[in-house]
Amino acid sequence: MHDPDPPFRPVRRQQGYLPLEDLGIIGDGRTAALVGLDGSIPWMCLPRFDSDPLFCGLLDHARGGHFTLAPEDLLEARQRYEPDTGVLTTELRSATGLVRVTDALTVRTGADLTDDAPAGRRELVRSAVVLSGHVRLRVALEPRGGCTARALFSGLELRVARQPDLRLHLRSNRPLTGLHSTHDLRQGERLDLVLSWGRFHRHHRFEAEAMLADTADAWRRWMKHFDYSGPQEALVRRAAITLKLCDDWANGALVAAPTSSLPAPVGGIRNWDYRYAWIRDAAYAVFALRRIGFSGEADAFLGWVLDAVEQSRSPRIMYDLDGGLVPAEIEDTELEGYRRSAPVRWGNGAADQRQHDLYGEILDCADQWLRTGRQVQPALWAGLAGLADAAEQAWRLPDQGIWEVRSDGRVFTYSAGMCQVALDRAAAIGERLGLPGSTTTWRASADRLRRLILEESWDEDAQTLSAHLDGGGVLDASLLALPLRHVVPADHPRMAATATAIAERLSAGDSLLYRYLHEESPDGLPGDEGAFVLCSFWLADNLTAQGRLDEAEKAYASLCARTSPLGLLPEQIDPTSGEFMGNFPQAFSHIGVIASGVNLARARSGASA
After folding, report:
1. Which residues pair with 35 in a beta bridge?
2. Single pTM value for the model
3. Backbone angles phi, psi at 58, to 5 degrees
4. Rounded distance, CA 390 to CA 410, Å?
5. What are the angstrom distances between the C-alpha of 109 and each of 193, 196, 198, 200, 387?
6. 496-507 as b/e, with b when 16 or more CB fall inside 10 Å?
7. How much is the average pLDDT of 80-89?
8. Helices 233-245 and 208-223: angle between axes, nearest 10 degrees
9. What tens digit of pLDDT does each residue of 568-592 get?
10. Do 290 and 307 touch, CB atoms closer than 8 A?
11. What is the pLDDT of residue 565?
12. Rounded distance, CA 71 to CA 182, Å?
């Protein structure tokens, strides 16, 4: 549960790994790092989110590498963010004293985080101060694959074996004899470390405290745009910052998560690389961020989507941060995986899948973008119209669906629903702006497809819409998204019955839902998985839209109570133990925190969503 002032707790490890709940995220709009409750940084990719990891002890605690700053004989610790910032503090207690470590990927003095421009200084600051007693601080910097160090500019120049083009510089306010050192400090004394990449100067001033203060100030200026009054406000604030930490600020791309290959479940093989930008995620993020005051970020996401689609010869479900092709999926046999859950994967094999919801995601993004007053150029409109024409045919064909199954395709109801969205939004754009195209045909096709979904996927015996358009009564939590995308009203009798069926048959307990049941919906992979966090928020949204506000609020509160003390969420949760599973932190899950809170707040006030 999110706790701005958490108690100290012992540092736990399982098979040598911290629980995901004991990790915090810092970032600078180009990359991110995870900071452990034990004072380690076991994950950071340089120079950007989807680069090779410099530290990836998260995926192999013995060989992956880390950057640790912690007292010897650590007993207990706690973490918290400086309010309304991405600056993280970890307080670590040993037998002899208490030290506070402040971590940030710093930004420029006076940086405006609403600008679609780089703000990061390309520097990681780790600043330790002894709060009481005396401590022996241990410093260990171990990149994956090792590195060499030599004295340079009152610090150390590092050459990383696996990334020879990456120039690193480590500076400190105390003498550094190498990549491993110990420092005896008493109350009030501090140790500052700054790791830089791509920029270092002989006479560069060493002002770690000032860099941290400037970074915190930039975050607080950005949070002045936050506009939300509703349930779980503190957690919604933190979710907004977490989404910003998953955003490439210069080009508007949103990574699904800043990590790769965290398993769902532990011991399984469902380990994927999420350090790329999905069109689907951007569409949901736009809805969430625009409604809490961050229209600039929403517009940047929309612009990135349209740029990426225009630049590619055919639309794709995901892109790299520059709008290019996602690398081919490979397995890294050198790493054992988080808690020995192999394989570790880089790249993503789902990038080339057929997923027909893509048409609706793109047209929905375009519709939202144009509603802000933007102008549609003839070439862009021709491309969008072509997507609408393609959607008119695509819904009839099998695809891999929203969950990117690795089995043979089916005609998924959600995919057909998003083709309906494509036709509806294309018609709306054409009607509103008087553009040339098959507007009348799209509108008629959208209406027919809506009726078809309600009729063909309905299973009378099961009293539910079905995962597949040919019926059968098999359930899939993606059906809960149909009202959210305005395909079917939430209070339509068949949609309401479907929500009830999902709540009963896909329940994992305490408001958590499974995406689907593997025995009913084989997805081409062995093993089960945990409860999917975003789907659980979708159920709360359906309850809200049906006017069942007390039930919705109870479900929302229960889900929010699942966050880590730092207010972070994974992709999935083990419903038995409550442990986090899958890549972390997961943008989709934090979108759920925001969107469901907004929907509840508006319903309570009587406002339209």
Report:
1. 24
2. 0.96
3. -60, -25
4. 18
5. 19, 16, 18, 17, 44
6. bebbebbbebbb
7. 98
8. 120
9. 999 999 999 999 999 999 999 999 9
10. no
11. 98
12. 9
